[in-house]
Amino acid sequence: MDLPPLRIDYMEGKRLDDILLEKVMAGDWDMVVDFCMARPVCLKFKITSLGDTVCHLAVLDGRYDAVQKLKKLICEEDVTEEALGVANVRGNTPLHLAASVGSVSMCECIAAGNVWPIGERNVDGETPLFLAALLGHKYAFLCDTRWPLMAQRKPYVALDLPLARRVRQQISTIYSNQCINIA
């Protein structure tokens, strides 16, 4: 189901999404978080030409503090509950990006709670767990004890667990043959 088009408000003659992008590009994350607290609907705005939201950009910028504050805001606001599920043009959500860069703390932050459907697939059919395994971010995908709890939310997510275990075993085999310890 597609979301209805978002109404883009104006402030001082500028579009809110443009203001947000300016603040993000300036690295003013405190202002970005404050801005989103005042206008939670902004969390769903796609503010780049690639369709990234503030959450996408916080992950890509490695700003765990901002991701944590935005996630807290998202959990508190009913209107923004789907904000973490907004996909960019490649179909990647903020969790896909956190898994791609191997940020365990951001993966845990984004995936925690009831807000986030962990089994979302991008345009290539890849889940965040698959991307982490594919890109060799073992600590972002070796969280076997946490995944089963989240897998209960969507039946097909459980299919990624055996895949992750096989990929982990293949990676371990490759690295052990090269005398590299990945434990």
Describe this structure as you would to a colleague.
Helix content is 49%, strand content 2%. By secondary structure, the protein is mainly alpha-helical. A two-stranded antiparallel sheet has the order 1-2. Strand 1 (10-11) and strand 2 form a beta hairpin. Mean pLDDT is 75; it is low at 1-8 and 144-159.
Key descriptive features of the protein:
Serine Threonine Protein Phosphatase 5, Tetratricopeptide repeat, Ankyrin_rpt, two-stranded antiparallel ribbon, Ankyrin_rpt-contain_sf, disordered N terminus, mainly alpha, 183 residues, 49% helix, 10 helices, 2 strands
Give the number of helices.
10
- Based on Cα principal axes, name the global outline: elongated
CATH homologous superfamily annotation: Ankyrin repeat-containing domain
Distance between the termini: 42 Å
Helix content: 40-55%
Major sheet: size, sense and barrel closure?
A: 2 strands, antiparallel
Task: Please state the structural category.
Answer: mainly alpha
